[in-house]
């Protein structure tokens, strides 16, 4: 029975992929096998020594102490692309809010609750609606920063709205490049993107290198009247710099899914409560994807969509499997195989892959491993953890 600690509201459709015959799910466990979460900011002390995997139902994993997980040989999974459509749709709504007097018009209409005569109200609205005139998106330039799952969907949607699309992504994957229409113009640097775009939308992860990326210097490059949208992460934008840019007119509007107190009450800011991925569909997609990945890992050691471990899949064979995480240095695999050979255990199949400082091995064996041998394997220099999976 695997114990899974759930630290956020996870879609029941995803949880149902972890059958009650094999899984216990709860919001509290002293020694869970895995943690399943969304945006909960996971503290180091919440990761018990028993934890073998952490699954994030969503895209961003900046709420998880990744370096520590890697050090402890814990793979962290996410659900790439599973909520991208939800974010795309909200960004399109954000573009409309940034170009038309929608919110201002709605607020105005809501001040007219004292009126009783419909004809009189209609006359007043026809007179006042000029205050809420906006501009069309067609013909405007959208700058997309980060052209991954979300950015590429937004680029496509914006093109179909008649916008020009320019993009910047210094780490674009081959798959992401294939998804991008050729009419998206690739910019060599952020400064040129900021200088050309009427709307700029951010869709990159927060890393040390992207923290505060949108700062005073970059905002100084903005085309006057530009509208900035941040549906990526709070930390990517220096909010004080944004407030100065709004005050001096280099930015016309800031639309964000990450409110902070200093932004509240401004007419030139639209704040949403981190609802980019809050649709039934996105929540289900994310939960199903990570639950399946977690189930596969706990049952067979296979890894798919990990952000810190190599991906690898091996069909089960033999009597049992060893799943071994070790430091990515020479001779460790040799020592493991040496111990198995000394114990006269035949390797039926195996797969070894590495990613940065981590190496991970699936080794299928012709006979069962006893606890003495497991202890010896775990004690090998450079081995981080060893899991025995019985078929
Ligand atoms: N508001 C929400 O609810 C919500 C929902 C989903 C994702 N997000 C955020 O959006 C981010 C992107 O999500 P995704 O699914 O598109 O991820 P993704 O991994 O598919 O795409 C991210 C892209 O950013 C690029 N990138 C990395 N560093 C960059 C840099 N310095 N400049 C420009 N591009 C850079 C990568 O190469 C990649 O193509 C997530 O990491 C998460 O923080 C927010
Ligand atoms: O990175 C993500 O996937 C989003 O920020 C969604 O976060 P949530 O699952 O807490 O809505």
From TrEMBL:
InterPro entries linked: ACT-like_dom_sf, ACT_dom, D-isomer_2_OHA_DH_cat_dom, D-isomer_DH_CS, D-isomer_DH_CS1, D-isomer_DH_NAD-bd, NAD(P)-bd_dom_sf
Catalytic reactions on record: (R)-2-hydroxyglutarate + NAD(+) = 2-oxoglutarate + NADH + H(+); (2R)-3-phosphoglycerate + NAD(+) = 3-phosphooxypyruvate + NADH + H(+)
Signal peptide span: none
Pfam family, one: 2-Hacid_dh_C
Protein's UniProt keywords contain Oxidoreductase: yes
EC numbers on record: 1.1.1.399, 1.1.1.95
UniProt KW keywords: NAD, Oxidoreductase
Pathway: Amino-acid biosynthesis; L-serine biosynthesis; L-serine from 3-phospho-D-glycerate: step 1/3
CDD domains xrefs: ACT_3PGDH, PGDH_like_3
Domain named ACT: residues: 321-391
PANTHER family found in the cross-reference section: FORMATE DEHYDROGENASE 1 (PTHR42938), HYDROXYPYRUVATE REDUCTASE (PTHR42938:SF47)
Function: Catalyzes the reversible oxidation of 3-phospho-D-glycerate to 3-phosphonooxypyruvate, the first step of the phosphorylated L-serine biosynthesis pathway. Also catalyzes the reversible oxidation of 2-hydroxyglutarate to 2-oxoglutarate.
Family from the record: Belongs to the D-isomer specific 2-hydroxyacid dehydrogenase family.
Designated name of the protein: D-3-phosphoglycerate dehydrogenase
Protein species of origin: Zhongshania guokunii
């Amino acid at each position: 029975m695997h114990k899974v600690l759930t630290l956020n509201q996870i879609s029941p459709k995803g949880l149902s992929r972890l059958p009650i015959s094999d899984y216990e799910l709860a919001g509290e466990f002293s020694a869970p096998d895995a943690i399943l979460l969304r945006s909960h900011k996971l503290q180091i002390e919440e990761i018990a020594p028993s934890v073998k995997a952490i699954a994030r139902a969503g895209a961003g994993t900046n709420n998880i102490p990744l370096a520590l997980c890697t050090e402890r040989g814990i793979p962290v999974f996410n659900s790439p692309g599973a909520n991208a459509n939800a974010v795309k749709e909200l960004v399109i709504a954000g573009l409309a809010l940034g170009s038309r007097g929608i919110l201002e018009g709605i607020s105005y209409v809501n001040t007219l609750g004292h009126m009783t005569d419909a004809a009189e109200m209609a006359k007043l609205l026809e007179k006042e609606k000029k205050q809420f005139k906006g501009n069309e998106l067609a013909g405007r330039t959208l700058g997309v920063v980060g052209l991954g799952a979300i950015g590429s969907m937004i680029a496509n949607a914006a093109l179909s709205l008649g916008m020009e699309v320019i993009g910047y992504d210094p780490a674009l994957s081959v798959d992401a490049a294939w998804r991008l229409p050729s009419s998206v113009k690739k910019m060599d640097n952020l400064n040129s993107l900021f200088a050309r775009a009427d709307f700029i939308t951010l869709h990159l992860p927060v890393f040390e290198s992207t923290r505060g990326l949108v700062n005073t210097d970059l905002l100084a490059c903005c085309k006057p009247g530009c509208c900035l949208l941040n549906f990526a992460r709070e930390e990517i934008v220096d909010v004080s710099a944004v407030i100065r840019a709004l005050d001096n007119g280099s930015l016309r509007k800031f639309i964000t899914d990450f409110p902070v107190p200093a932004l509240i009450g401004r007419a030139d800011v639209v704040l949403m409560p981190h609802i980019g991925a809050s649709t039934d569909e996105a929540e289900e997609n994310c939960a199903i994807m990570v639950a399946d990945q977690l189930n596969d890992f706990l049952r067979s050691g296979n890894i798919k969509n990990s952000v810190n471990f190599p991906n690898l899949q091996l069909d089960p064979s033999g009597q049992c499997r060893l799943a071994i995480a070790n430091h990515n240095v020479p001779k460790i695999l040799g020592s493991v195989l040496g111990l198995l050979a000394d114990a006269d255990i035949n390797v039926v199949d195996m797969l070894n892959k590495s990613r940065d400082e981590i190496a991970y091995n699936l080794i299928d064996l012709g006979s069962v491993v006893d606890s003495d041998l497991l202890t010896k394997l775990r004690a090998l220099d450079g081995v981080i953890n060893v899991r025995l999976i019985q078929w």
